Amino acid sequence: MPERYPFLKGHGTENDFVLLPDPDGSVHGELSPQRMAERVRALCDRRAGIGGDGVLRVVRRDGGWFMDYRNSDGSVSEMCGNGIRVFARYLVDEGLADPSAPIPVGTRDGVKVLTVDGDLITADMGAPRVLGESKVAVPGHAWVARHVDMGNPHAVAFVESLDDAGTLLDAPDHDETTYPHGVNVEFVVRRGDRHVAMRVHERGSGETRSCGTGACAVMVAAAVADGARPTDADVAYRVDVPGGTLTVTWTTDDRVLLTGPAVIVARGTTGL
Ligand SMILES: N[C@@H](CCC[C@H](N)C(=O)O)C(=O)O
Hints:
Layout: E1 5-12, E2 15-21, H1 33-44, E3 54-61, E4 64-71, H2 81-93, E5 103-107, E6 110-117, E7 120-124, E8 129-138, E9 141-149, E10 153-158, E11 173-174, E12 184-192, E13 195-202, E14 206-208, H3 212-225, E15 235-241, E16 244-250, E17 256-261, E18 263-270
Parallel strand pairs: 2-3, 4-5, 10-12, 13-15
Antiparallel strand pairs: 1-2, 1-18, 3-4, 5-6, 6-7, 7-17, 8-9, 8-11, 9-10, 12-13, 13-14, 15-16, 16-17
This protein binds the ligand N[C@@H](CCC[C@H](N)C(=O)O)C(=O)O.
């Protein structure tokens, strides 16, 4: 009988994750990086596994919580905006965090603070870095894209129609000098005043139904393009994704707040 260990499944606007409680590192912590990547791929497999865009290993570190995030191909990323909101939902549901107080969670991009308001969870993603422009392309279309760093790398392209991005079965072409470690590519259309819609091809996961850091990058790129950087007051945009709606607020003290629903939908044990 293979060793079995606990898992949960959750999502934020249909960006879905397998959660692996491993507070003291005794369940997965001893695995080699290669073996852990294999395990992540097996768990995220939508036919033979549980299915997910990524894995959130829930670890205790330095007296607090740490989100050990991996994409569905087993690669690590610095940050996951929807994932950390689902992570906070898990902590609250399990009685491991007080929903009436700010919840700090460590990530490879430093500590992020989450707040809970009923069904909605907000992640303080910190300061965005608005960088230069480069080209992204899919078969038949190419665009200039804005480089926004949200702890992880994003290329944001404003397009005429979200259909122009095509099937997104393969990663869009991008400038490998600008993005030596790969990139998350967002395709954006305007829907109204401070209202946009996007699709995303995520590094390490393919097209997903939502991307929290991607929504933040899109909002920041749109606000810059609109001449709406926050000066006297915070600026909020609605960002529609295929899996729902997120609200992104850029504050006058240069923090980006990502707000949306996050739910746990299943739990069990697995030997994958
Ligand atoms: N879905 C995530 C982003 C996950 C990481 C990304 N694929 C990367 O490799 O940087 C989000 O909600 O932010």
